[in-house]
Design a protein that fits this description.
By secondary structure, the chain is α+β, with helices and mostly antiparallel strands. Helix content is about 35%, strand content about 10%. The protein has helices at about 1-5, 40-50, 50-65, 65-75, 85-90, 95-115, 155-160, 180-185, 210, 220-225, 245, 300-325, 330-350, and strands spanning about 200, 220, 230, 235-240, 255-260, 265-270, 270-275, 280-285. The protein has a two-stranded antiparallel ribbon. A hairpin with a 2-residue loop joins strand 5 and strand 6 (about 265-270). Helix 2 runs antiparallel to helix 3, helix 2 (about 40-50) runs parallel beside helix 6 (about 95-115) and helix 6 (about 95-115) runs antiparallel to helix 7. The protein is elongated, with a radius of gyration of 41 Å. The N and C termini lie far apart (about 85 Å). The relative contact order is 0.08.
Length: about 350
């Protein structure tokens, strides 16, 4: 199932309307089908939700009923069958190609998920990954991919069940013949960072739903690209590492971390300052209260009071001339001035 699903999958990213009728090259998967399955195959989902061993048992029973395995038992290939028999057996044990696709994709989701969970049974295969027999149907297909090395834990399982966002879209039928071929390829998202190393991060791929949505996390060699830079999957590029946010810093007591591009520095907390006299580090600032001094102004004398009153009357007379009120009777003038002053006070308080 794994070889059929991966080796004979096609690269749909580069489809062109003008090239739809041209034969496409089969490649190892860079991602799961897009769009994702809206509904998982019920048989696979029911079995795999119970656990790894139940999941494997369900898939194994299904594979034993495929034409390729039946051919091994009976020696009769699809080409030797009548048209009616061939039509019945073509998608066996499924009724349609759509159901076959749904089953295989669902199985791939779960097998990749269990691989990323590091299930011990998938750490190494019973036979060499490079020398696996892919049934009589694929006897002329041989793996020459350097990743097919069962000596590396989970390498064969990753190659068999999971998409490869790093090297999944390569020439030679999707096979990567050497590590350097992937690192220098323009298809590799990490090719312009450091030495081009790109790795799937097991710890950052523990959830099933993001896996179905092709949100596999991988990392690039950002440290070799620029000091204190790290890979960010959201932006898919190397960005400055915030040591302060990550807690990856060393500051003394009464100091706070301040991030900079490529590094960080320690600053004194509020209320503290560096003092070379007191030694290294930050020391609490001491504030000395300053006594308030008030100047007593002399009390106004009778002469000053009379002068102020006289100046006020002069101002009112000028204001009265401006308004044409000085010809009015004194009582009327006084009432008008009072009203104007009251209005002024109200306006000033609004």
């Amino acid at each position: 199932m794994d070889f059929d699903h991966r080796y004979f999958s096609f690269d749909d990213d580069d489809d062109d309307d003008d090239d739809r009728d041209k034969p496409r090259e089969a490649v190892f998967m860079r991602h799961f089908p897009v769009p994702r399955l809206r509904t998982l195959h019920p048989s696979v989902k029911r079995a795999c939700m119970k656990g790894f061993h139940t999941c494997i048992h369900e898939i194994a029973l299904s594979i034993q009923n495929t034409p390729a395995f039946k051919e091994q038992k009976t020696g009769v290939s699809l080409n030797q069958m009548s048209e009616n028999q061939k039509e019945e057996e073509l998608y066996a044990p499924f009724k349609t190609s759509l159901e076959q696709f749904q089953y295989r994709t669902t199985a791939s989701y779960y097998m990749c998920y269990y691989t990323l969970q590091r299930i011990p049974e998938l750490e190494h295969f019973s036979s060499e990954c490079r020398g696996l027999s892919f049934t009589l149907r694929y006897k002329d297909k041989r793996l020459h991919d350097y990743r097919a090395d069962d000596k590396e834990p989970y390498a064969c399982a990753l190659l068999s069940f999971c998409p490869d966002p790093c090297c999944g879209k390569m020439p030679n039928g999707g096979q990567v013949l050497s590590p350097g071929a992937c690192r220098t390829s323009a298809k590799n998202p990490c090719s312009k960072y450091g030495d081009g190393t790109c790795q799937v991060d097991f710890k950052q791929n523990q959830n099933f739903q993001p896996l179905m949505k092709n949100r596999l996390n991988f990392t690039c060699d950002c440290a070799a690209y620029r000091k204190s830079f790290v890979w960010n999957m959201r932006f898919r590029q190397c960005i400055d590492k915030d040591e302060c946010y990550d807690g990856d810093y060393t500051c003394e007591e009464n100091q706070v971390c301040r991030n900079t591009v490529g590094s960080y520095y320690c600053a004194c907390r509020r209320g503290y300052a560096s003092n070379q006299t007191l030694g290294r580090g930050c020391h609490k600032q001491e504030y000395h209260q300053v006594e308030d001094h008030f100047v007593d102004l002399p009390a106004p004398t009778e002469e000053v009071d009379v002068a102020s009153k006289s100046q006020g009357e002069d101002l009112l007379d000028k204001f009265g001339d401006f308004l044409g009120l000085n010809t009015a009777p004194p009582t009327t003038r006084s009432s008008i001035f009072t009203n104007i002053l009251m209005a002024a006070i109200v306006v000033a308080t609004i």
